[in-house]
Hints:
Layout: H1 4-48, E1 53-62, E2 66-69, E3 74-79, E4 86-87, E5 92-96, H2 99-168, H3 175-220, H4 229-246, E6 249-251, E7 256-259, E8 268-269, E9 274-279, E10 285-291, E11 303-308, E12 312-324, E13 350-357, H5 359-364, E14 372-378
Antiparallel strand pairs: 1-10, 1-14, 2-9, 3-5, 3-8, 4-7, 5-6, 7-9, 10-13, 11-12, 11-14, 12-13
Helix pairs in contact: 2-3, 2-4
Amino acid sequence: MSKMEPQLLNAANDEIDARNGARRKRLFALLGGTVLACAAGYGVYEYVYASHFVSTDNAYIAAETAQVTTAVGGIVSDVRVTDTQQVKRGDVLVTIDDTDHKLALAQADAELGRAVRRVRGYAANDDSLAAQIASRSADEKRAQAQLAAAGADFERAQVDLKRREALADSGSVSGDELTRARNAFETARANLAAAQALATQSRANTGVAYGAREANAVLIADATEETNPEVALARARRDQARVNLERTVVRAPVDGVVVRRSVQIGQQVQAGAGLLSVVPLAAVHVDANFKEVQLAQVRVGQPVELTSDLYGSSVSYHGVVTGLSGGTGSAFATIPAQNATGNWIKVVQRVPVRIEIDPQELATRPLQVGLSMNATIDTRTIVR
């Protein structure tokens, strides 16, 4: 081998290394440009589009569960539902033995009838008292006439006695005649006192009659038979007894599914006792717990896209923000955090956001209370 061959070989290798280096530089430049372009594209995407959406997977289905209680006490005679059973508003859930309530209604009806008759008696008594007043007035006038007659007789007897006493000294009037005159005077005076007492009694009787009529008038004043307070009170008690009888049949307050049934046939229940609950699955909502740093642009009325772990990401629901809680979840915890001490660690808080779901979508794919959800709020919508 000549001396020129190694030199040519080294020159070829250097040329290959130079071409490879140039190629690597171009590849690195292309890769760097691609990374920068991707970063710029993501930045633009984040700024223009993605930054207007906030998401969380800390969201769950909730509902305004209807607590079914009994308004009257008694023994449960029938239970017509079980847990997980679908019910409609107005369906009979539980019946309570109504024997006592039927008797109470019959008693209240009787009390109402007695009150009506009593009020009618007041009206009839008013006419009777009016006639009694007229009779007492006539008696009073007769007593006044008798008093006047007794007064006249007394004056005449007094004059006759004085005349006979004046003539008695001269012997013109016998002792027997003077005695009769004195007896007549005493009789007239007694009759006058009796007439005065009778007149006083007659006036008092008339006053009593007027008072009795006034007292009776108070019971019927400014009221008809229907509006009289006694009748109205008895009617209200009758109506309450009828309502209590109707309440022995406990009905579903809403459409939904029965849960937590605790009542059994034969059980003695008190008024207000909880029997079961009904979950209105057609009206469930989502409680989404967003971080406090995500809520700056969240407003009531903004649209929300939801997915459920039950159906997967291929099925989406649409909803709307209807409200934000008045405090963070920890603020209303059973044992709230106490950060007043010197040694504490700041933790990002979460605020519950209520989201209503499209009812038609719920009807197509029902959701149960407590299921996990993923929620994404579109904050581009400005709601004022």
